[in-house]
Amino acid sequence: MPLPTTVTPLYELEIPSSKKKIKYRPFLVKEQKILLIALESQDQVQILEAIKTIFKNCIETKIKLEDLSIFDVEYIFLNIRGRSIQETIEMNVTCEDDGETEVKVEFLINDVKVEFPEGHSKEIQLSDNILLVMKYPNLDYFAKVNFSEEVQDPYELVASCVDTVYENGEDCGDFTKEEAIEWVEKLTNPQFEKIQQFFNTMPALRHRLKIRNPKTKVETEYVIEGLANFFA
Q1: d(C-alpha 97, C-alpha 47), whole Å
Q2: How far is 199 from 136, CA to CA, in rounded Å?
Q3: 10 Å Cβ neighbour count for 170?
Q4: How confident is the model at residue 231 (pLDDT cuts 50, 70, 90)?
Q5: Scanning 110, 147, 190, 215, which has its CA 20 to 30 A from the CA of 23?
Q6: Measured between alpha carbons, how far is 208 from 222 in angstroms, rounded to an integer?
Q7: How many whole angstroms separate alpha carbon 89 and alpha carbon 6?
Q8: How far is CA 205 from the centre of its chain?
Q9: Are 150 and 143 in contact (CB under 8 A)?
C-alpha cells in the first residue's frame, strides 16, 4: 500500500511595494533542509541559492524575484517561515526605562507589517542639474544582511541602488557596477548624506509593542525592525 499523499495548504498575501497579491505555501522538510545546510556552510552563494529555491518553490504566483525590494523579501520570508514553523513569535525584550528588566512578549506574524514613512522618495536632487533616482536593495542584499557576518561596504550598497541619473533632464544611460561605485566615491559629503537619508527613511519590516515594566510600572513603546531582529 503506497504512503498517503499529504496536502499542503495555500495562503495569500500582498507584496508591500507593488500591492500585488500572491499565493504561497509553507516550505517542506526538504526545503528547510536545503536552507539549514546552506546556513551551516556559511557560503554566501549557497545561502542565496537556498533562499531563491524556497521562494521559487513556495510562491505559486509567477513573480520576478529580482523585482522584489528587500522589505518585500523580508515580509514574504517572514510569512513563509511563520506558516512553515510557527505563526507566533516569542522573545524577551529589555524595558527601555531602566535598561535592564527583561519582559517576555508574544505576537502573531500576521500582525507584522511593512511601514512606509511619510516624505520618503526614490528621487534625490543632488544639485541644480543632477537628479538621482534610486532603487531598493534586493534579494542579494537581503541574504547578506540576514545570513552573513560579512561587513557591507556602504559605497558599494549605494552604487548598487543607483537606478537612473539625470543631468539637465537627460537620462545619462546605462552604466556598470564599477562605474557606479567610482561615481559615488566622487560625490561630496552633503550629496552622499542626501542619499543616506533615502536608506534611513526606507520602508521597513517593523512591529511596535507596548511594554510595561513589572518593576517600575512604566509603559513604553518597543520597536522591532528588520527580519533578523524578529528571530534574535
Answers
A1: 38
A2: 8
A3: 9
A4: low
A5: 147
A6: 6
A7: 26
A8: 7
A9: no
Calculate mean pLDDT across residues 128-147. Answer: 86
- CA 228, CA 89: separation in Å to the nearest integer? 12
Domain ranges of the chain: 11-84, 88-115+204-230, 123-200
Q: Map residue 209 onto helix, strand or coil.
A: strand
Separation of alpha carbons 158 and 198, rounded Å: 10
Residue holding cell 500582525? 111
pLDDT value for 56: 92
Residue among 123, 121, 141, 140 at smallest CA distance from 132: 123
| Distance of alpha carbon 8 from alpha carbon 6, whole angstroms | 6
- Is the CB of residue 12 less than 8 Å from the CB of residue 22? yes
120 grid coordinates? 520618503
Q: Which three cell numbers stand for residue 29?
A: 522538510
